[in-house]
Amino acid sequence: MRRTRGRRGAALVTTALAAAVALTACGGGSGPPSGAAAGPAAPAAPAGGPLDLAGVCPATVVMQQDWQPESEHGAMYSLVGPDRTIDADAKTVKGSLVAHGVDTGVDIEVRPGGPSVGFQPVPALMYLDDSIVLGAVNSDEAISSAASHATVAVTSQITVSPQILMWDPATYPGKTTIRDVAATGAPVVTSGDVIPALLESQGIIAASQSDTSYDGTPARFVSDPKIMQQGFATAEPYIYENEIAQWHKPVGFEKLADVGYSIYPEPLAVRADKLDALRPCLQKLVPIMQQAQIDYLKNPRPTNQLIVDLVNAYQTGWTYSAGVADFSAKAQVDQGFVTNDPASGVFGQFDPARMQKIVDTFGQILQRNGTIIAVPGPKSLYTNEFIDPNIRMGSSG
Hints:
This is ABC-type nitrate/sulfonate/bicarbonate transport system substrate-binding protein. This protein has 12 helices and 12 strands. It is an alpha/beta fold. The chain is 31% helix and 15% strand.
């Protein structure tokens, strides 16, 4: 399932408009860089050390996100060095890949998804473009793409999905859970059928409650507060209370992870057929990505400023304020979305039992709705081979 992120209330754009912008963006990549370098280059990493990627990784490590720049993608953007340039036409930011304050000897290019790529799923993009090294691929999307665009996740960046269902507390006083609100018969408005299928399979909602017409704008929720609507705990609660003038009050919500949405959200993956060739690179790059997420969340402000600058430069119709960025980074930690792996205590490591449960749950859903024919084995979807077991949140790293 493609992660639908075109739902930021403050944007107030329709999916049709975003798609039109995407076509323009995809056709304008030949223009010159529009962002000047932000500062001098970082000092070089010691030759041959763990932070020296020259000769083992591609000269430019391309990383593909699944949506527009936002704080949930902070680890990627935090590695773009101060010598960066922003190409507003191509919708990319590129600079030296800087980790722990040193230049790793290669460049990094971070590309957004969503309208910038015509809403194509990340696995498909990775097979269209050989230059992409790492892509953010939800584990349910990895299942649905396994037959045609197989990927292997190499590290988790967000441990628990921040996706939520939200509702109006005034319409449903005293209701504090998805199950409680759904029991009233409230329509459940989403942008795809996997979430409602999951809820139906658990008896939480009836098929008649499912409405997959969510277009990413706040208009429906504001005008019809009887509905439950998808969102992200790292964004919508702040946006609706602080940035949507027609609402300006809290929303009620519960994490979908609490009712079985057990996927790994946006783990970093490589193409399955490139795993062997990338192995020397991944042995050094994966620990860098583990630590980058931890370091970003300790000091998110500089990277959040870059994220906001990119959104303003790209001009896709997406809006993202510094307030949302700061709220998101804080919520990722405070609400337990970014944690060490509960099974091993290692940050970024995959739990085999959880992966089995994900495949069992979402493989059946995707088979029933006709998305896939065969369910892939869980071991084909991830590897812990490159994980540094010493990297943990709460430690010195």
